[in-house]
Each structure stands twice: as C-alpha cells, then as structure tokens.
Amino acid sequence: MGTRPVGNADVDALIEQASADLVATGAAIEAAGLCRGSSGNMSLRVGDDLVVMTPSGSLLGDLDPGALSVVAFDGRHLAGEAPSKELPLHLEMYRKNPRHRAVIHVHSPFAIAASCLEPWSEFSALPPLTPYFVMRAGQTPLVPYAHPGSNELAGHLRQISRPFSSALLQNHGQITSNATLESALDSAIEVEEAARATLLTAGKRARTLTPDEACELAERNGTMWTP
User: Fold this and answer.
1) Active-site residues: which are they?
2) Which residues is 43 bridged to in the sheet?
3) pLDDT at position 2, please?
4) Which strands, in side-by-side order, build the sheet including 173-178?
5) pLDDT at residue 81, as a whole number
6) What's the CA gap between 188 and 152, in Å, rounded?
7) Which site in 47, 102, 160, 202 is 20 to 30 Å from 118, CA atoms measured?
C-alpha cells in the first residue's frame, strides 16, 4: 500500500505532521517508563475521517514515521503497515469523546496492578487521592475484561454510560484520550501516578478529596467527575 491514501496535498501534510507527533510522543512515553518492548499503542485523528495509528507490534520508542498506519474512521486500512489490533478500542474512545484527537493505550505497571483489584467505586477504579488526578485524568472507570484487540473489549467500553476520558482495562492496562497527544500523555502519566498512590495506600485509612472538591476541580479543569 502507498503512504498517500488521499492524494490531497493539505491532508497529506496533516498526515505527515501527525506521524511526526506520534514518533515524538512514543519516545516520551518510553522515557516516562509507561511501556516496555512492543506493548502499547497510540493514534491521532486527522480531520473527521482519518486516523493515524501505530502498527501492530511496534516499539513506541522507535517508530518509523513512514510505517505508521492510516485508517478510515470506519476501520478500513488505507496505507502503511497494519494498524494495532486495538484499533476498535481507539475508535470507540473517539466516538465517546468526539472532540478529542488523540488516544494512548499503555501497559504501565501500576495501572496494570490497579486494574487487577476491585474498583474503588462504580464510576472510578481509582480514588481521588490528589487534585492532579482529577485535574488531568478525571474519573477513571474499570472496563471489564475481554480479549485484547477484540470487538467485545470495545463494546465493554462503549457500555459505560458515565462520561470519561481515562479508563483502566481489567487485568490489562490503561487508556486515555484528549485533545492533543501531549495532553493525552499527561493524562496517562497521571493515571499511572494515581494507580501507584492507590496501591501504596491500599488497606490504610487514606484521605480522599470530597465529592464537592473533586467535582469543583473537574469543572474548573475540563475533566469529568460525576459521582
């Protein structure tokens, strides 16, 4: 397949820029310790109809911009290598948050560990231990387990009725979406930190933010907290 699925110079330029942004963010994800080996995947939405995504089995810290996958929003593979098997999950996150342009899914160690525990509440697997978790990630529900890459997993995410832009995938890892790759990465880092704090305080009488405090922070920062 070619690397120019549209043949429109303006769209082609946007795809090239998206590819460069994904390469830079992949290096930042590795530097932050959020992924090891070929685990994890990212995508960036281009316009309303296209998504640029990391290929299946790629190393996020060593991406080839020319090999990144270009897919239509209906899931058709248009160019580059085959997209990650988690494409259905990414597309579902975009449908849930239509104004978001970036999705990051990583198998970060503390998020994996927290995803193996019972969730803190129905609407957030992680408690509001710090203001920064609420400000940068917001409520983070637990998506029930299904085989990685399956339509069933994407369906479980779709069935969560409360709004969210970050989630733990049961026994699997975490996923975040946001307006930019930079802000999606900020969310992913904060989810990992919140998961670490949750594990460190497990079984102790930890103080959390009150519902009013969490809701006020979320409203002020454009995140979601609706207990």
Assistant:
1) 86, 132
2) 53, 103
3) 39
4) 77-79, 69-72, 50-53, 41-46, 102-106, 173-178, 166-169, 142-143
5) 96
6) 23
7) 102
- 115 to 12, 55, 145, 161: CA distances (angstroms): 39, 25, 10, 19
pLDDT attached to residue 7: 63
b/e per residue 115-126 (b: at least 16 CB within 10 A): bebebbeebbbb
Rg (CA), the chain: 17
Name the residue type at position 198.
Answer: T
pLDDT, averaged in runs of 10, over the chain (227 residues): 58 94 97 90 96 95 95 95 97 97 98 98 97 98 97 98 97 98 98 98 96 97 92
Which pTM value belongs to this model? 0.95
Task: Return the pLDDT at 8.
Answer: 77
Tokens, residue 122: 């129905």
